[in-house]
Amino acid sequence: MTTLAIIGCAVFLIGWLPLRVKPGRYAVLVSKTGGVDPIVVAPGDGRWSALAFLPTNARLVSFAPAMAERRLDISGELPSAKAYSAFMAGEPDFSYSFAVRLLAAPKPEALPELYGRWGVEDDAELSAWLESEMDLAASALRSSLGSATAAFPDEASLALAVSAKHPLLDVRGVTITAARSPDPRLYEEARRFYSAYMEKFSSSMESALADASSKAASDQVRVDALERYGRLLERYPALVDYLAIQAGIPPRPAAGK
After folding, report:
1. Contact, 169 vs 136, CB < 8 A?
2. Which range scores top for mean pLDDT: 1-10, 30-39, 145-154, 197-206?
3. What letter would DSSP give residue 152?
4. Taking the mean position of all CA atoms in its chain, how far away is CA 110?
5. Are the C-beta atoms of residues 106 and 129 closer than 8 Å to each other?
6. What is the number of domains present in the chain?
7. How are the residues of the chain apportioned to helix, strand and coil, as percentages rounded to the nearest 5?
8. pLDDT tens per residue, range 111-124
9. Radius of gyration of the chain from Cα atoms?
10. Residue 169 falls within a domain, yes or no?
11. Which of 1, 37, 177, 238 could form a disulfide with 29 if both were Cys (CB 3.0 to 4.6 A apart)?
12. Contact between residue 78 and residue 24 where contact means Cβ atoms under 8 Å apart
C-alpha cells in the first residue's frame, strides 16, 4: 500500500501543473499532441494533465502579469459652437477639455490566444503586444471623446466601450482626472435660438428672391419689347409719325421744311 501510495502521489505531482508555475505568474500549456490548451494555468488552480508525463511532449510557457497606462488630454468644441454662442447673451463658451487615464492589462485567460494567434512567447513580447494594444485603445478613446456631445462622459461606459473593442484587454479603469464641459441646457437653448432665426431668415430670403426674380423677369420683357420696337423703327421710320398720330402728337415736320 505504501508503494502504491507513493506511486499515486508521484503521478499526481507530475501531472499537477500549478506546481510548475512560479508564484505570481501564469502559464500556457503547449503540447505536440494537444496543441495550445485554451485554459491558462495559474498558481493555486486545480489543474492536472496527463500530458505532463511526457517531458518532450508538453511544456509550460510562463508569463508575468503586465499592466500599462495611457494619459490623454482631449479638447475641442461642440458642433457649431461659435455660431450658437453668438446668439446668447455674454457669448457662452461651448468648448470642452478632458484629462483621461486609461489603465489595462492582458486578460490572463487571453494568454493561450495571444500565444497561439499572435505568437507571444515571453514577457518581452507580451509587453510589446500590450503597448501596441494600449495605443489602439487610447486612439479609439480619444476619437470617442473628441466627438463628445454636451453630456459629460460616463467613466463606466467608456471602460465598457474600450473592453468591447479590445476583448483581450482587462480594462482596470478609465478615469476622468480633470474636465471642463459646457452646460448642455444652455447649448441646447442656443441651438434652438439659432435654428429658429435661420428658419425665419431663410423664409424671408425666399420671399425677397421670389419678388426680385419676378421684377427681373418683368423688366426683361420690357427690354425685349423695346429692342424689337427699335429694330422695327429702324426698318420703317415712317412708323414714328404713325404712332405719333395715334397718340395725338403732331407728326414730325417734313425734311427741308
Report:
1. no
2. 30-39
3. P
4. 26
5. yes
6. 3
7. 50, 20, 30
8. 999 999 989 999 99
9. 42
10. yes
11. 37
12. no
| Any domain includes 254 | no
Give residue 91's domain range: 68-182
Cβ–Cβ under 8 Å, residues 84 and 94: yes
**DSSP classification of residue 20:** G
Give CA separation, 10 vs 15, 20, 42, 44, 53, in Å.
9, 14, 21, 19, 11
Residue 251 domain-assigned?
no
Length of the chain: 257
Whether 252 is covered by a domain: the verdict is no
Higher-confidence position of 157 and 197 = 157
Phi then psi dihedrals of residue 217, to 5 deg: -65, -40
Clarify whether residues 16 and 105 are in a common domain: no
Do 47 and 93 reside in the same domain of the chain? no
What is the 8-class DSSP label of residue 112?
H
Q: Are residues 79 and 164 in the same domain?
A: yes
Q: Cell 510589446 maps to which residue?
A: 128
